[in-house]
Amino acid sequence: MNCQYHNLCPIISVCISPHKCQFQRKLCFKCLYAHGVDLKQTIPIDNFQEKAQKKLQDLNADQNEELIQQKLAFKSILSQTQNTLKNIWDVLYESINQIFEIIEKENNSYINLISLNPIESSITELEQLVSIVDGPKLNDWCFQKTQYLMELKQIIYLWEKEIQVLVEKSNEKMEKIQQILTQIEGCNQPYVRKEDLCQILNSIWDIDESIFKGIIDIVRKEKIQNIIGFISKPLNPQIYGSFVNQQQTIDDVKRKIMNIAYALRNILEHQFSKHDYTNEAYEKDRLNLIMNLESNKNFINFLKFLVQLTAIDNQFIQSGSNAFNLLVSMKVDLKNQCLENIKIKNTALTDGNFVGCNFSGSELENVDISGVNFNGALLLNCQWKNIQINELNTLNLNSYVNSVCISPDGTKLASGSGDKSIRLWDVKTGQQIAKWDGHSNSVFSVCFSPDGTSLASGSGDKSICLWNVKTGQQRAKWNGRSNSVFSVCYSPDGTKLASGSGDKSIRLWDVKTGQQIAKWDGHSNSVFSVCFSPDGTTLASGSGDESICLWDVKTGQQRAKWNDHSNSVFSVCFSPDGITLASGSGDKSICLTNVETGEQKVKLVGHTNYVNSVCFSPKGDTLASCGIDKSIRIWDAKTGQQRGEIDGHIDYVRSICYSPDGTILASGSFDQSICLWDAQIGQQMVKLDGQNNTVWSICFSPDGTKLASGSSDKSICLWDVQTGLQKIKMNGHSDYVRSVCFSPDGTTLASGSYDNSICLWDVQIGQQKGYLNGHVGFVLSVCFSPDGTKLASGSSDKSICIWDVKTGQQKVKMNGHSDYVRSVCFSPDGTTLASGSNDNSIRLWNVQTGQLQALINGHSNYVLSVCFSPDGTTLASGSVDKSILLWDVKTGLQKAKFDGHTHYVISVCYSPDGSILASGSYDNSICLWDLQRGQLKARLEGHSNYVLSICFSPDGTILASGSEDKSILLWDVKTGLQKVFLENHDNDLWPICFSQDRNTLASQSWNNTIRLWDVKTGFEIESQDKNYQALIAQFDIPLNSNNPLVKDFYYNYSQRSLFPNLQISQIRKIQAKGALILKGEFMNYQGYDLIQLLKSKGSYFLEEILEKND
């Protein structure tokens, strides 16, 4: 028999190692090499069979005589018992029946006599009647009858007792027999003590969330306190009956439940249940656990199960507390969870995100909650003691934040502070990346260069510094001012830097040389803000003299001066289209002014103190503002109406800035913190959790049932197209996954990565089956040949490789491009390979010989994508020059040019019938081109960032698109409507690929993951937190406009996205905006009552609301 993993290789050995064998214990010689287990742990097939036979003989396991004898004896005793019992029952029935018949007959005789007419009665009958009326005969009978009935009653009572004892004893015997039965069936292995926590958890690796949740529901309902004893009962109908269904047999359920029971028993005997694992002594064990657990969803579900058990069984308080710490450390999504009545002690939950969680009735003791986010949480009747919060000791520090700026790629945030430093932060994690010291006074302004490689800073020390963002080195320091530099701003092309100063002047600098180009004097007071127009021709300045000036950058002439404000102008900002200028002032107002005419379009009034900063969203439809009133306000830029108000800072908000994609709003404050806010208010989309980063690549499987996705989070996800559910997540790359492609038969998925390697994956089981290593640069594109025997790869090392899929050997290496090879594509007949490169060229290669067949030049910039038409006669190409070109493959001549995108064309793809060409672009859109008419058929808009990859399903009815907004959209090609939204990568999504049956889509991301998606649907899991309106109704709080607290309730819960998702601060700060609190106790380890702190964070105390309503 040949190996199922290496088809031509016979099975030669059996693995006997005590592990979960990746080759199912049947090994060929190739498996032996890849197996990674000592050869001593393998036995040749023949020897294995001989050894098994010898074991059988040595133990007389093949001798069945005794077994047969016992079986016959058991049958005999059961048969005898059955016959004996039957005889007893028969005799008993007959005897009792006779007694009642005799009593009944005697009774009837007296009744019949008494009913006779004495005149008509015979002498015998009359004598009997006289003895009844005048004698003791009837009295004697009634007495005897009563005695008989009492004796029978006593016998029945004793018999019931004996039967009950018999039944109980029989049940005990039955339980023992059932235990033996389940053990023999293999459904319930005998309990084995395990010392290694990972081994304990491995025993429940295949148990899904539904089992854990079902057990919790049952034990809560039944008010069980001993969880192990309850679930260990054989054939417990309360447990087993709940889980048996079409997918799970009674045997499956038995095995899973008993495995949970044994795992819990092992945990109780382990150090995990006795000690605080945040203690330094357990740090190594804790990190090892995190490394082993975070990739398995069922392990995470078990940890959640342990946390819930703390509310049920006190034996699990410490292990559940340790589990809670691990979940927080692994950044597991714990938002909107029901955590009622949990008991947590002796652990740390630092930086945990519990937005919208229900902690009602919870007991916390000796727990560190520094930096925890309780925004919107329910905290009713909580008992929290000995709580640790670092913030309590550091609320009054004075390292205020003057300025914040997000990098052009949205990954970094820079802040300038009163402590004279500049800090660089990771936007995703909130972790500080770097701290730069170079100024000798407060840093008032920071600004990234348009390419994100440099950062400019202006300071109270009168200098401007330029910093290398990558290295943190100071590139330049300019000292030319006689007063503080309040504002710095790069020109859109990055060649100039403008600065505004306390010396009342504006200066223009050449970034390359550091020379001052110009100095403009027009203000009579400090210049607090400068801003270039989007086209770089105009500079706006706002000043303490209450005016705004517009300057011609080329001539230095003042184009206009406006005096719309009655106090200092602290901030100016152009709209993205350059038509409108927004200004924020000390007069508490914001003005929107037409740049061309100087007419004031609208005046925004809402702030109750100075407006410090204004910023347009990238789309220009929204304006954000912040001020000394500690608030951030969101405005409709067209109508001037206030859309929302964000109150999260506890001191002046000094600076705000939108991320380039408009999804995040950053704010810096005098409270020493930076907050990142979800800027998309009230927008909900269906999503699937799994990958949360840019999706670089997606690909349908040949049968269309699966979708693979590759992402910047280094993973590959496999999705079920029909249900929208994630099937498999594959981790194997150590850097961004740039390209994914299904083999024509759909059994293999290839992935190319920035780690310079290519991985081949078994789609069925999600296991890596091959590893191709030959490039010395990033692998940017992979493509299977039509027959599936070859794989082509293009790399940043400028080469193209052709690989033998079966052997993994490199067959051909083609060198000809002078820059990165961005895209490779086989012709439908597999004889020609096309490649597109950063050298602006397209090349056609002979697959067999590796020789160059043709060189095609026509694009004026990088060629990012190439794709053959289904008939192989035409090649389409997309380029950084924003165009799509169609080429005659035979002649190499240009057939057509499509111009419709306003930014780079990243991906092109033909529909299976060749009638439509789809293109994805950096302008966030997808274009569908009618090739017969040569014109745009439809423009699909739904992504909020670059469209990086597109792919048609095999039948051409669905188009999948992957984007830097971390999502995959599925479109109906006929209607142009969006069908499904998949959001699961931890980073940008690049290539995507459909399976042939169109039910699956593969995608990949920067996070090194490849994922497979179900294409048809994608349903969001509803939050399980309690409804706040129902809670308010319980307290009979009137929901009217005169109750400001209730208005805040509606606002905070209906606009959940206004709760900060992440807060960046050197000090870990607890958040509790909109948390609802009733009674309870909240005390720190020093005896400090935390109620005032929670109030300062924006929590609501229901008792106070009730008192006010009374």
What does this structure look like?
- By secondary structure, this protein is of the alpha+beta class.
- The protein is 23% helix and 37% strand.
- The strands form 17 sheets. Strands 35, 36, 37, 62 and 63 form a five-stranded mixed β-sheet that branches. The chain has a four-stranded parallel β-sheet with strand order 4-5-7-66. Strands 8-9-10-11 form a four-stranded antiparallel β-sheet, with no helix packed on it.
- Strand 29 and strand 30 form a beta hairpin.
- Residues 392-398, 681-692, 984-990 and 1016-1067 have low confidence and may be disordered.
- It comes from Paramecium sonneborni.
- Pfam families: Beta-prop_EML_2, Beta-prop_WDR3_1st, Pentapeptide, WD40.
- Keywords: Repeat, WD repeat.
- WD repeats lie at residues 394-435, 436-477, 478-519, 520-561, 562-603, 604-645, 646-687, 688-724, 730-764, 772-813, 814-855, 856-897, 898-939, 940-976, 982-1023.
- Residues 404-561 form the EML-like second beta-propeller domain.
Concise description?
This protein is α+β, with helices and mostly antiparallel strands and 1110 residues long. It is built from 17 helices and 67 strands.
